[in-house]
Amino acid sequence: MLAGVAVLCCLPALASALPVSTPNVTPQQLEQRILASQRLSFAGYAESNANFGLPPLPAFSSVTPLLNGVTRLRVWQASTDRWRVDTLSDAGENDTYQLGSDTYVWDSGQQLLTGIFGAETVRLPRAADLVPSSLAVRLISWAGAGATLTSLPPRRVAGQSAAGLAISPASSQSTIARVDIWAAPGTGIPLLVQIFGHGSAAPALQSQFLQVGPWTESGGVLAPQRGPAAGFTATSPASFAGVLKNLATVRLPDDLAGFERQPSPLPQIHIYGSGLTAFAVLAFPPSQGGQLLSDALDAGARSLTLPDPDGDGTTAGTGAVAGAPLVNLVVLKLSRSPVTYLLVGLVSQASLEQAANAVVAYTRFHR
């Protein structure tokens, strides 16, 4: 018995010690194979390990576990708009089904299946975003044509020989220094994704398939399931958007701290910069904004005092600044405005503070 346990414990080390051999592919060829892999059907088990270190804000409680700690994922994908991802924990599981434009979410703790009917224009990050296959494709898309692509030595991932691709953002203003992706060279399916901040030898986020292979849809795996005693509720994407559904509509300039505003799916969400060098500005009504600032300060964020642009020594507002290897944020409450602003994204704290000062200057004349 003990000998059997010892063998099982050694299997991961033995697998990693097996020789690795991959066909010669250029970085550009591997990138194209990764993008083309979206059309493939597969199933597997993956784990994401994140260490963002952002303060836990109750308004974003659904996101915090994804950015700090291990997320265990069971994945089935028939196509880009037909898939299922189960998030597994000691307390149970939460399953997300994507069926065309409709989404279903099963919560085993509440014994509740929720149907979200209609395309989600905007939403908070979810566990399915951390699956290596979808994460890699999103990062490649965000990096854009100006990113630098280089090859990495092959390595064994999920029992397969994987070819490596390193992506460096074109802009030095991005908090992301490098994205490393290892993919099956034949299919292009990403097996391992690592995201590094500047000056760090360890990834701030790593997502890896431990097991993955071809899969043909069968047995109703993609049909949302619930027990006979479970509840069901239907809602719209807007109603399911959590903290984003009550944002205030405000006017902001076309440029903040040198970052140009980009098209946004909602007028309440302002996006500046692009790709891996972008941040969003959200405005929260008084009923939520004051609590957001208080929660940030209570969680250890650095307090921020903004001088009035008039230069008369008065205070234009107060706020909080928090940073992590990849994501920084500023919460800003202005004296002249009833709303509270949240600036959050993949740019430095200094850039976000400059943007906050620009918001102060702009709201002085545009209320």
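Second entry:
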Amino acid sequence: MHSLAALRGASFGVQVGTTSLTAIESAIKPSSQPQVFNGSNDVVTALRQHHVDAIVVDLATAFYLTSGGQIPGGIVAGQFSAPGGDNWGLLLSHHSKLTPCVDQALAKVRANGTLAAITKRWMQSGAGVPVLK
């Protein structure tokens, strides 16, 4: 599979409230409406039980699902860009004493290019996952 067009006939599952539905509709443009599920566990179950042919999740989640045994025999078929894209964040407790330190460290790795390099290596390049167009 080398193109998004090759996926148009597949049935897709997606979690409600995520950017995945928009990604499917705008980038893949499937011939049938994706099935929307209430939670990520429901999406994974639908795939494992063959109720859908494929699911769309962010790349990090795809690696987790396929390497952690949640989807035995599952493969990451490809990656693609979609409008909006996902952004990353750090989560700390409200009024955490670590916030100033984390903000400073994040600003430094962003300014010196380390954050971009890490993102490109581990998220965008996708460890060899083909880019579908």
